[in-house]
Every structure is written in C-alpha cells, then in structure tokens.
Design brief:
There is one protein chain. The chain is of the alpha+beta class. It folds into two domains: about 5-65, Winged helix-like DNA-binding domain superfamily/Winged helix DNA-binding domain (Arc Repressor Mutant, subunit A); about 75-255, GAF domain (Beta-Lactamase). About 45% of the residues lie in helices and about 20% in strands. It contains nine helices and nine strands. A six-stranded antiparallel β-sheet has the order 6-5-4-9-8-7, with helices on both faces. α6 packs across α8.
C-alpha cells in the first residue's frame, strides 16, 4: 500500500503492546509482542519517551497518562448519537428488544439514536422521528428534568390528546405522573402512545448532573408484562444509561 506509513504503524503497535495485564514491559517483551527487532523497538520506545507517552526506570517501560490524549482526540469528535450507539447495540442484544435515545425539542421527543430488533409499532421509527413527550417514557423522563416554570410552559404548549384509552391527558394527572418519575428516576409507559406498546426509560445526564437525553427500551404488551418490564428491562437500562453518562463525562473532559 503506497500511502501506508510503516513507522507510524509500528509506533502504534508499540503502544498497543501494553495492557492491563502487562502494564510494564521490558525491551525484549515489547520486541516479542510487536514482532520488531530489539533495535527497532528501542528506537520507538525512546521516541515515545521523548514525546511523553512512555516512561522507563531503565529496565521496564510503561505508558504515561499522556496516552489518554489520543483517546480524547477521538472522543472529542463524537456527538451524543455516536456515543450512545454502541451502548444501545449492547442493550438491544442483551434484552432482545429495541432501544433508543431521544432529546426534548419543544413539546416533542426527537429520536437521535436507535437500534431496532423488531417493528412493534404501526409507525416506523427512525432518526428524527418525533412523538409527543407527554405520552412517551423518554418524554416523561425529560419532562421530569424541567423546572416548575418550564413544565408549566410545556403544558400550555402541549395540548395533550388521547391517543389510546390509556393516555393520560389531564394536567393534574400528568403533573402527578411526572413527579413520580422524578422521584423514582425512571419512567414506564403502558400503551399510552399506541395500543400494545410498553416502554421504560431512564435519564442520561452530563457531568454537571443535567439531564441531556433519555434512553429507553420498548416491547410489546403481548410478550412482556409490566412486572417483567421492571424486573428484566429496568436493570440493564439503568446500567446502559450509566455507561453513556460515563462516556459523555469523558467527552466533556476532552473538550474542556
């Protein structure tokens, strides 16, 4: 390959030689793991040491925290959907249900990331799909993060209407439900957006604790009871939210 820079590839191979299992390596070990000669391995290690990516006590070599800059350069280029996608894939594979991330935009939630395992709604959901916040699990999580004044403004704009026989539309009932979501830290909606659709959602917070998005799992009522949703879907959902938050925190540090 004409454009392949072999020295760069070898330098990265030296960095990858270190691991949690072997955080410190001798020159001979680096040469063996990378397939380089001892002389070449020594040149790369000394160059990395000059650049501050490697330290040595004269016999053993180890990476320095400066290596994290390489990862931060990648993280700083990511958006929320790109951060969330691999976690949604893991969640969907674990629970075998569709998983999504949405943000609040006016009176609606807008899907910004999604991994679908099966179509369980009449409407096909894709990135950019919008639904009323008041009758969706992600919407209620996001509404629960609003201040009292912001929620009042939302209710004035939203004009809730009954989409199914179960849809909560009375302002007082919505206030009570959102307060419950705020207290427990997650929301479950049972067939309020569409008959047969159940979903559960959790907040995704930034490093300051501000809710910036919501993540959910949706399932069909015919195969998953409310008890099963709480027992089987809630724990992995909360774990996924925590992992997304951890990546967002790292991203925030990278951009600081």
């Amino acid at each position: 390959m004409v454009d392949h820079v072999q020295s760069l590839a070898r330098g990265l191979a030296v960095i990858r030689a270190f691991s949690a299992a072997e955080p410190e390596l001798t020159l001979s070990q680096v040469a063996r793991i990378t397939g380089l000669t001892r002389a070449a391995a020594r040149r790369f290690l000394l160059t990395l040491a000059d650049l501050g990516y490697v330290r040595s006590d004269g016999r053993l070599f180890a990476l320095t925290p400066r290596v994290l800059e390489l990862g931060y350069a990648y993280l700083s280029s990511l958006s929320l959907p790109e951060v969330a996608d691999p976690h949604l894939e893991r969640l969907a594979a674990e629970v075998r249900e569709s998983a999504s991330v949405a943000v609040l935009d006016g009176a609606d939630v807008v899907y910004v990331a999604r991994v679908a395992t099966a179509r369980i709604m009449r409407v096909s959901i894709s990135i950019g799909t919008r639904f009323p916040a008041y009758c969706t699990s992600m919407g209620r999580v996001l509404l629960a993060a609003l201040s009292a004044g912001e929620f009042d403004d939302y209710l004035e704009r939203a004009e809730p209407r009954r989409l199914t026989s179960r849809t909560i539309v009375l302002p007082a009932a919505l206030r009570a439900e959102v307060a419950r979501v705020r207290a427990q830290g997650w929301a479950m909606v049972d067939q309020e957006l569409e008959e047969g659709l159940r979903s559960i959602a959790a907040p995704v917070r930034d490093r300051s604790g501000r809710t910036v998005a919501a993540v959910n799992v949706s399932t069909h009522a015919s195969r998953t009871s409310l008890q099963q949703v709480r027992r089987d879907l809630l724990p992995p959902l909360l774990a996924t939210a925590a992992r997304i938050e951890a990546d967002l925190a790292a991203l925030s540090v990278a951009r600081a």
